[in-house]
TrEMBL record:
Superkingdom of origin: Bacteria
Protein name: MmgE/PrpD family protein
SUPFAM superfamilies: 2-methylcitrate dehydratase PrpD
Limits of the MmgE/PrpD C-terminal domain: 277-448
Domain MmgE/PrpD N-terminal: from-to ranges: 12-256
One Pfam family linked to the record: MmgE_PrpD_N
UniProt cross-references to InterPro entries, sorted A to Z: MmgE/PrpD_sf, MmgE/PrpD_sf_1, MmgE/PrpD_sf_2, MmgE_PrpD, MmgE_PrpD_C, MmgE_PrpD_N
Record Gene3D superfamilies: 2-methylcitrate dehydratase PrpD (3.30.1330.120)
Family: Belongs to the PrpD family.
Coiled-coil region: none
Length: 465
């Protein structure tokens, strides 16, 4: 374990950096990347808002939330930011199409940071520039927390990074938009430590609650900042202290990542990742590796006798526990055997593919037979820092075909701006039409020029007929 050597607590360093940061001080490349992730998350939120878990959270906040001016995107509901962000965070992480951090920084920043800054910004009447500035800090904060705590937090302790890390970034971003002073921001981070939670038992035995972890984290981060604003204080060494977050949540950690080169080096654009498929991010390298084999060799699904998935330790545990016969959508999205079998048999792992299989109880005989012939194994070339996925096919004619790949959309295998924008248009236009998709994309990609977030949120108040 590596503890920080500075005399100032990490929470204070983060607060001073965030509150003193100006948008003009940020590298344009960083700003551009954050805008693309804002776009990606908004697309996830509005396109998934009708899923069962999202409806539950919307019903919850409608019954028990407080009236306000923050939008639940894709509906006409407007509530207090804490309630709206809870629902939006759930929608944004409800079908495994949200962004993530890679290259040693596994996390899901978009589904916590974006719902928070939009809800607070809309209620506060903040400009697009203020919201963008807070989003930049939020994304970087989540990535730094992931670098400090992963993979131990998840692999060794079983905590879910979405709920555990996002709450701190939301508390800090909230303090920025509300224009709090440093003391309030430090206490907001400190109080957030008492809200950090969420386990990965869902990947072992199921449970839709996983999809609510982001919403819980967002609401808790906003609540933390509000409590600090009212005068509640917390331990300033909450992150790196001897009984702080890292010590409590990790067997091994490196607190230096929290503040080292803060303001000089941006980890987010080095590690930011966009999903192309509706599954756990740790499975997506295998989809790409299979596609490489399929592009280079002639064979059919019926020719495949055995599939071997070479995995890094995190993927082996996180996607290898459900087994080849998932019982629900979440299980299918976290079963490496079933997901790869889908790709071999049906050639797709998009939202529609999983929903179609849900309609038949995941009982497609061809996919189940392929999944039963698929097994995971640890591959020494696939590591946490080098998250390759290897696929080896043993064919009935005696051939053995193998390939390895990084996930498309990851730093090692990036997708283009056009790819990300195409994904957004496809998600949004399905329910809201091409014109809303185009107009909202233009506004988000020029967020610093937006004077009122209602210009964006208002576009999604009702789906097309």
């Amino acid at each position: 374990m590596q503890a920080t050597t500075t005399t100032l607590p990490a929470a204070r360093q983060l607060a001073e950096w965030a509150l003193g940061l100006q948008l003009c001080d940020i590298d344009p490349h960083v700003v551009e990347r954050v805008k693309l992730h804002l776009l990606d998350q908004i697309g996830a939120q509005v396109s998934c808002r009708e899923l069962p878990t999202c409806r539950i959270t919307q019903e919850y906040v409608s019954k028990f939330g407080t009236a306000g001016t923050a939008s639940i995107l894709g509906t006409r509901l407007r509530l207090d930011p804490e309630s709206a962000a809870f629902a939006n965070g759930t929608s944004g992480s409800s079908f495994e199409i949200d962004d993530y951090g890679g290259k040693g920084a596994n996390c899901h920043p978009g589904c916590t940071v974006v719902p928070a800054v939009f809800a607070i910004g809309e209620a506060k009447g903040a400009s697009g520039a203020e919201v963008l500035r807070a989003a930049v800090v939020g994304f970087e904060t989540v990535i730094r927390l992931a670098l400090a705590s992963m993979p131990s937090l998840l692999l060794e302790r079983g905590f879910h990074h979405t709920g555990s890390l996002g709450v701190f970034a939301v508390a800090l971003a909230s303090a920025m938009i509300e224009r709090d002073d440093v003391e309030v921001a430090v206490n907001a981070i400190a109080i957030a430590g008492s809200h950090a939670s969420g386990t990965t038992e869902f990947a072992q035995s199921g449970g839709e609650v996983k999809r609510v972890h982001a919403g819980i984290s967002v609401a808790a981060g906003i609540r933390s900042a509000r409590l600090a604003r009212l005068g509640l204080n917390g331990p300033p060494t909450i992150l790196e202290g001897s009984r702080g977050f890292l010590q409590a949540f990790c067997n091994d950690f490196d607190a230096r990542y929290l503040t080292e080169e803060l303001g000089m080096r941006w980890h987010f654009p080095e590690r930011a990742s966009i999903k192309l498929y509706a599954s756990c991010a740790l499975m997506q390298p295998h989809f790409a590796a299979y596609d490489m084999i399929k592009a280079e060799h002639a064979f059919s699904a019926q020719d495949v006798e055995e599939v071997i998935l070479g995995c890094d330790p995190l993927a082996f545990v996180h996607t290898g526990s459900v087994g080849p016969r998932p019982k629900d959508v979440l299980g299918a999205q976290f079963s490496a055997e079933y997901g790869v079998a889908m790709r071999i048999v049906r050639g797709s792992n998009d939202v529609g593919s999983y929903l179609d299989l849900e309609a038949i109880g995941f009982e497609d005989p061809a996919i189940l037979a392929m999944a039963e012939r698929t097994r995971l194994e640890r591959d020494p070339e696939c590591t946490f820092e080098r998250p390759l996925g290897r696929v080896t096919l043993r064919l009935r004619d005696g051939r053995t075909l193998s390939a390895s790949s990084y996930a498309p959309g990851s730093p090692q295998n990036p997708v283009s701006r056009d790819d990300i924008q195409r994904k957004y248009r496809e998600l949004v236009s399905r329910d809201f039409g091409d014109e809303v998709a185009r107009r909202s994309m233009d506004l988000i990609m020029n967020l610093e020029e937006v004077t009122n977030l209602g210009q964006i949120t208002g576009l999604f108040e009702g789906a097309k007929a």
